[in-house]
Amino acid sequence: MNREDFYKAGLCLALLGGSPWAATAPNPLEFPCQPVTCSTLTPTASVVDPKTNDCAYRVGNLWWVDYVAGSLAWSEGEGGGMKPVTVAIFDDGAWIDHEDLRNQLWTNSAEANGKPGVDDDGNGYVDDLHGWDFVDNSPDVSPKGACRDRFSHGTMMASLVAAERNNGVGIAAPGSDGARVMILRVVGCDADTTKVDPDRLIRALEYATRMGARILSFSAHWSVTTPQLDAAFREIADRPDSPVAAIVVASVPNKGEPAAGYPAAYGFHRIVRAIPIGNDDEISPGTSPAPIGLNLGAASACVIGAGRPPAQYKLEQGSSNSTAILAGLLAGIWSSPRYAKFSADEFLAGVVEGRMSKTARRSKPGSRPPYMEGVPLADACLLATEHRTASVCRTPEGHREARP
Ligand SMILES: [Ca+2]
Ligand SMILES: [Ca+2]
Ligand SMILES: [Ca+2]
Asked: Looking at the predicted structure, is the pLDDT value of residue 26 above 60?
């Protein structure tokens, strides 16, 4: 977090009047239904969208959904034919009973229709219904230990990918309609579990791809790797015709780290890096250098997401948010009838890379290379609207405008 972000986040919380924790319903005056003003990009008027009743969206707090034209990912699927993309969340677990997550989970149908205590699909994991806890080797993916009493990072990330839309509460996300989240607990909050363990991560990668995840979201980064972990990522993110090919969405940190860390530091062609953009449209000044490649800007600051069950939300800032928002956006677009049959490479080459090079919509320049000329923004209007069929797109000035 940079100082400006910190100031704005502090301002936000001050405006909220104390605790960032608050119930969402039924009082419409409570956060997140109460407008916040921490982003200069926050719409000045409530969103008039009769198809979407999530309170934080209606009140204008989901500026980042508009910023990436994330609502386009919803209209792309209108008329049916949407094939939800499974997005694996590699994090510290998640509260899957949260009101905005419980209907948005990837589900292992063999286990859902099977017997408790039995590995019904023979994948080596007993009762793995919505993912797996690779730290404690358990089907219970909820936060554990010290994490239980804290704001849940993994829950926030899952909600930014795919919070349930139009359920009258909480938030919406670009992947609300087109993404289902697989929860993989790979780190914990207690002393011996906070570090990324390469062997644990390899098991989680194998699980995710074998069980059908097509986007792997990493709102975390690490500096040390092993040949085995490198090989696992190479297979998923680089090898042509790999049966486990998937898109890896990788966070690029913004706290002044000298290098981006893994997996963002890999030069593999299926790595898409999320470049954190502040709520003033600028690349976060402390953003680490990243390899040249699929680097897309996404919102990092003044972002509201789910934090605790059953119905609590929080305002956060950081490059983690950018990563989850980008993962949800890519899933939302990829799930549309036009692209659902595309392989990972076809989608990346034809949609992401093919269009981002033509986009005029870029962030303001950053202070460090390779961001001196800004980065293309993760913008669904640009990535998805070859024929400009979007009902909601943005003008360069940032205002909403209807398109035919
Ligand atoms: Ca199983
Ligand atoms: Ca079972
Ligand atoms: Ca919602």
From this structure: no
